[in-house]
Inverse folding.
């Protein structure tokens, strides 16, 4: 079964990746400080031409990819929202329970800041006891000829 | 960046054609899980978790390709049913025994039952403040037909001591971190649930082999309880003299506050209680949300209702945001712990935007709320009434 097979391959290279991540700590940490962000130059394997992550562009992105996606997909992160404290608690929980390796404080701070910036808590409008149905479950605005979204549509969000 | 490419290239190279780029590239569209309907929504591709849109769940018996996927870790590879064994042990077993799959199939009476499975976190996406984890909407539920043997028959063959409190399962899946000493998940149920007629050791689904993703060659089915109690790739069951303390039994996993808390309130682990039976719930499956429907033309509304360990007594529909309700026709379940078909009809005499709401009541009189129910830190047990949006024109 292909999925299982793929999982197996991940496991085989897991410790190799841990090594890469540890080696990468220093340059990554410097990047996180905002000196001069420059991409790491670990060689791509021939034939690879895809970007492994849907993470938002921004300072700290590489750190998040390097430290988070060894165990799980980017999707587990990007579908969630939290504030700095929440993201930090989650990281600490993963270290305690899920086998996430230790992070030096600078790295952890940079990761938390990135996550709280791009995957932060939504503003007040989201604090509802029952959210509106999501956009993809909504019918057309009206049966009249299609028009640009009306302000009325926005109110429901 | 380089590190992640280093990670993912080998992964990608072994994926079947058509799966690689979508799984890991910028757009989630097009990610297709082998053996699954293309309409399933992938929430997480590693570990793989995917839910089924409500309109794809209209079958009374959920086909394999439409059953949601919930993984805590990685499924085992190289599963060989011919050498597969199940160990029964634990503090409270009289005689620990090992069974081959063939022995289980041949020595105990076969049972075939329609049993619904729902993830404890189904509906999590509606909690505010948000609860972290896979953001399930409504689709982490299904009701396939399972064939297997009663867990009770096997436990009784080994002997259950009076000290028995709980069973705990072990599976062959692996922890997402790759650490071989960690288990991905190891949960269980109290003896009373374990010994029920409908608690199965299943080796077949919908008349065929269980797909690899769903626990082949042997899994538990503890219908009506959080899906995580229905362990997959089963290798061992312990009869415990205490509440099972395996992975995801402790801490906050699959637990809710023992007494209700305010939204966002901090809850100590010691105040969290294990989820047992799931609450009453229903799903409209005959209409796709977002439909346009003509004025004054009756619209048939069908779907399924279920209530954890209990039966559903009534299902009602509202087409006016809960102001008026009409009672549906509700079928008896084909067997205990199967979901029940409901059918009703609504007519909209005036054009506009409407939502069709479904609300089920269980045999104890408990009804689905229209608002999201009691907030809990992990976002479990959202059984708020299902809503389907319709434009009447």
């Amino acid at each position: 079964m292909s999925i299982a097979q793929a999982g197996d391959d991940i496991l085989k290279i897991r410790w190799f990746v841990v090594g890469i991540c540890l080696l990468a700590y220093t340059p990554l940490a410097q990047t996180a400080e905002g000196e001069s962000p420059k991409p790491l130059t670990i060689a791509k394997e021939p034939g690879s031409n895809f970007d492994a992550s849907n993470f938002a562009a921004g300072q700290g992105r590489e750190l998040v990819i390097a430290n988070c996606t060894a165990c799980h997909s980017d999707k587990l992160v990007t579908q969630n929202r939290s504030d700095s404290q929440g993201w930090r608690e989650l990281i600490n929980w993963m270290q305690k329970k899920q086998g996430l390796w230790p992070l030096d404080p600078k790295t952890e701070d940079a990761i938390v800041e990135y996550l709280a910036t791009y995957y932060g808590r939504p503003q007040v409008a989201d604090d509802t006891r029952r959210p509106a149905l999501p956009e993809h479950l909504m019918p057309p605005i009206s049966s009249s000829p299609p028009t640009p979204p009306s302000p009325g549509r926005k109110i429901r969000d | 960046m380089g590190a992640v490419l280093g990670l993912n290239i080998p992964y990608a190279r072994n994926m079947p054609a058509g799966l690689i780029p979508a799984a890991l590239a910028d757009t989630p569209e097009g990610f297709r899980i082998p053996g699954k309907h293309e309409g399933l929504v992938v929430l997480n591709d590693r570990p793989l978790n995917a839910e089924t849109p409500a309109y794809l769940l209209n079958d009374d018996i959920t086909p394999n390709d439409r059953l949601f996927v919930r993984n805590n870790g990685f499924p085992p590879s190289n599963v060989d049913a011919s050498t597969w064994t199940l160990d029964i042990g634990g503090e409270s077993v009289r005689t620990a025994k090992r069974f081959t799959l063939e022995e289980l199939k041949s020595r105990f009476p076969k049972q075939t039952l329609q049993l619904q499975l729902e993830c404890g976190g189904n509906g999590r996406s509606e909690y505010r403040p948000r609860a972290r984890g896979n953001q399930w909407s409504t689709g982490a539920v299904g009701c396939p037909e399972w064939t297997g043997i009663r867990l009770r028959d096997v436990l009784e063959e080994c002997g259950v001591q009076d000290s028995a409190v709980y069973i705990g399962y072990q599976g062959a899946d692996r922890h997402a971190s790759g650490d071989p000493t960690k288990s991905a998940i190891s949960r269980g149920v109290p003896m009373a649930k374990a010994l029920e007629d409908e608690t199965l050791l299943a080796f077949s689904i919908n008349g065929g082999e269980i797909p690899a993703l769903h626990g082949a060659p042997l899994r538990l089915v503890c219908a009506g309880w959080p899906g995580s109690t229905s362990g997959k790739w089963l290798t061992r069951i312990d009869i415990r003299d205490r509440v099972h303390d395996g992975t995801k039994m402790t801490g906050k996993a699959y637990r809710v506050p023992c007494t209700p808390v305010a939204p966002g309130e901090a809850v100590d682990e010691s105040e969290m209680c294990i989820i047992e039976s799931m609450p009453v719930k229903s799903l409209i499956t005959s209409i796709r949300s977002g439909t346009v429907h003509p004025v004054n033309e009756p619209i048939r509304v069908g779907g399924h209702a279920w209530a954890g360990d209990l039966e559903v007594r009534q299902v009602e529909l509202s087409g006016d945001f809960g102001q008026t309700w009409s009672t549906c026709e509700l079928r008896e379940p084909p067997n205990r712990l199967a979901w029940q078909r409901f059918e009703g009809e609504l007519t909209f005499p005036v054009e506009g935007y409407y939502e069709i709401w479904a609300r089920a009541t269980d045999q104890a009189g408990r009804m689905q709320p229209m608002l999201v129910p009691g907030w809990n830190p992990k976002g479990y047990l959202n059984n708020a009434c299902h809503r389907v949006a319709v434009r009447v024109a």
